[in-house]
Amino acid sequence: MNPIEQFQQEVRENIDGLGKDTDLQAMSRVWVREITRHKWSYNFSWLGRPAIQFPNDAWALQELVWACRPDVIVETGIAHGGSLILSASLLAMLDICDATEAGEVLDPSKPKRKVIGIDIDIRDHNRKAIEAHPMSNRIEMIQGSSIDPSVVEQVKAAVGDAKSVLVCLDSNHTHDHVLAELNAYAPMVTPGSYCCVYDTIVEDMPPEMSVDRPWGPGDNPKTAVHAWIKDNPGFEIDKSIDHKLLISVAPDGFLKRVD
């Protein structure tokens, strides 16, 4: 075994050990519960735009983008646009790497990859800020409900014949809405790529943390994932990501297409 293989094997063993450490897993859930009271995820931005994400989950997305090398990332839920900017910047780096490896001159005005963002209400100030960002030429925004059939058709048309597609679901977190999103967007995911379902952590949090929300324990993205995946054997929950991150809003939410 060469040094690189040896290191990779050590990492796999580390992750396996984390998955078996039930006390540490429980402590991580307690930490998430306590930090959520302080709206911790609101404290971070990506290239100047607020990105309401846990840093660990953003890092996980970076790893998936590098591994899957998507031509298109589809995201439901835009908010301030930080997640769109994150995805667009990761795709820009892929384009740079591809051009470097091929010995080509990269034309930044003609990006090869793009992000499609969908939101039922794209606030005017957020739209203007996203459109003014240097990454904006990689971003296409669609306003409307992510489960509206006409919106889904717009997304399909925008995805076109992309060879590699990754999907991130982060809009309305009720069971029924996420289930409808999975039925609409998971089929767009290409084999070997992922559908990332965020805020599955709601199922593991106390009910009082969902006050004033239409979702909560028993009615949330995780319950939708568990219901959906039973009838979709072409996907599996990648638990290794959960075990590696420990601190995440998406336990059981990283769905890999395996067919």
UniProtKB/TrEMBL annotation:
Pfam families assigned to the protein according to its UniProt record, in alphabetical order: RMNT_CmcI (PF04989)
Lineage top rank: taxon: Bacteria
Keyword Methyltransferase: yes
Protein keywords: Methyltransferase, Transferase
Name the UniProt record assigns to this protein: Cephalosporin hydroxylase
